[in-house]
Design goal:
2 copies of one chain form a homodimer. The first copy, chain A, is of the alpha+beta class. Chain A contains 10 helices and 14 strands. In chain A, 35% of the residues lie in helices and 26% in strands. In chain A, β4, α3 and β5 form a beta-alpha-beta unit. Chain A is globular and about 60 Å long. β2 of chain A pairs antiparallel with β3 of chain B, so a sheet runs across the interface. Chains A, B: One of its GO terms (molecular function) is thiamine-phosphate kinase activity.
Chain lengths: 322, 322
């Protein structure tokens, strides 16, 4: 079923780019990387029932499949260019494909991102996407590079996607006409890759990662790659009004620390540049909040509102049993 | 489970390449396309039970997942460089991964192809791979370009993979110590992407495609893209001794015409260059056989041994009911 479905998606998502010499329709795409640019490449898979609940709208799946990949490019400071799609479906369902292509195109079009190739196969629903972007040589943002004394910042707000997922799974009691519910569901289903912020951080952030697995896990990757530790103040964690009004303080804190799927950027900058970076990211719409600092050592520590260090428990985060 | 499994695969398949600025271990890989080269990119998915039978050896799956992708690069005349892997498995099975990585590496190493990124997720077994290769600007082999009067050639032999699949599915009676059986099973499980042949065909073939869906379907794509027709002589179809000794003439012919998964190249060259191209491809080991010619019109016609035209039937190919 390769040809029809990919062609259907292509018609929804057509983008003409001079750097695409041959797009969909031959054995491979042929592409020209602009002179003086390097290529940033990432691949991510969404599996139904694992990465999105059964019943998720096809347009949300199309958006999210692209968004989680573009978030990887954002974390590198790369500008997006091309995508490849490997779509496995139980049956060739044109209604699903129409919706999927529509959601994909809504996110792709503002970036002039072109779908350059794909493969559709029959099987349990699985969506793999690979994205390609450009970055000047040596300018990519890496996980390694955080220095002792740097500030730790995050874009946007944290914990919303985890809250949205819990509301969805809880089912019944939530009122879908409630704007707070719609906001959290949108944060789960339609994450915004922070591409403009990532590009603005080039040559300013000393390290960067996107928050896909949860703040503590992802900041932990920065610390491991940079051979440093981080101290976070839970009182500084940016959280949305919707999250804070629908969940108690402890739950909201734990979602912000450990919830995945927010796709915000977590990054480090020298203390002297914090104000300048915050001003620029505020102009880009998402803002950035300072949540802690880089220190010597390893791992990530969290100080709670009362000044006590938190430790991980099965349910979430708790004060050290002293 | 992303980090451990991809790291395990990476250790099996480590290739140091100067053009990989950042490989596995950050949010995206960072790559440098050599100056003056364009990028050829393809993606393909294998699903258990659809593209390989349950019970296929993990090393064969690792080989084939890469081979079907490299075959797309071969059909473009590109030289391979990098691969991305999206691996979905029901559980993180180290024995499967070890075998998969071993088969992948056996095919990757001679080409110094580097695994530059990946994503492992939990779900029904699905393997998507994206490969990247280089080709000089304007030199990629395309499906469009076949001219009236050109000869149609194929590398290697046709129908072996379909025969191997039928023997596997038939089960019982086949003697696995029989070298003919082993040959056909190997053609199914360990196809050889014709990369050297593809590169040798640059600036000589007027069109090219790899035979993944069957000769008639894939040559049909050349004809559609080139706005021409093709006439094939069934007596000229290259078939292996194993195929001819285990199946009757009609079945062997039908496998060669319609069987998929052979991953040979089908291409067109001006008649005056046939001998030169055949001599070069013979030196590369796989050889090339002239099987027909390009004529005006549309579609692919097949003339049987007795001079009569064949038509498609539900069972295979038959003489026109005149």
């Amino acid at each position: 079923m390769e040809f029809d479905l990919i062609d259907l998606i292509r018609r929804h998502t057509a983008q003409s780019r001079d750097d695409v010499r041959m797009g969909i329709g031959d054995d491979a795409a042929v592409l020209a990387v602009p002179p003086g640019q390097e290529l940033a490449v990432a691949i991510d898979t969404l599996v139904e029932g694992v990465h999105f609940p059964p019943g998720t709208a096809p347009a949300d799946i199309g958006w999210k499949a692209l968004a989680v990949n573009l978030s990887d490019l954002a974390a590198m400071g790369a500008s997006p260019a091309w995508a490849l799609l490997a779509l496995t479906l139980p049956s060739p369902d044109p209604v699903f494909i129409e919706g999927f292509a529509e959601g994909f195109a809504q996110l792709a079009q503002p970036y002039r991102l072109a779908l350059i190739g794909g493969d559709t196969t029959r099987g349990p629903m699985t969506i793999s996407m690979a994205v390609h972007g450009f970055v000047a040589p040596g300018k990519a943002l890496l996980r390694a590079g955080a220095c002792v004394g740097d500030a730790v910042l995050v874009t946007g707000t944290l914990g919303d996607a985890a809250a949205g997922l819990q509301l969805l799974q809880r089912g019944g009691p939530v009122d879908e006409s409630d704007a707070r519910y719609r906001f959290l569901a949108e944060r789960l289903n339609r994450p915004t890759p922070r591409l403009a912020s990532g590009m603005a951080l080039r040559e300013r952030a000393t390290s960067c990662i996107d928050v896909s697995d949860g703040l503590l896990a992802d900041l932990g990757h920065i610390c491991a790659a940079s051979d440093v530790a981080a101290e976070i103040e839970s009182v500084l964690l940016p959280r949305s009004p919707a999250l804070l009004s629908l969940f108690d303080e402890t739950t909201a804190r734990d979602f912000a620390l450990s919830g995945g799927d927010d796709y915000e950027l977590c990054f480090t900058v020298p203390m002297a540049r914090v104000a300048e970076v915050q001003a620029d990211l505020a102009r880009l719409g998402c803002g950035a909040t300072r949540i802690g600092r880089i220190v010597e050592g390893s791992g990530v520590r969290v100080r709670d509102v009362d000044g006590q260090w938190l430790e991980s428990t099965r349910q979430g985060w708790d004060h050290f049993a002293a």
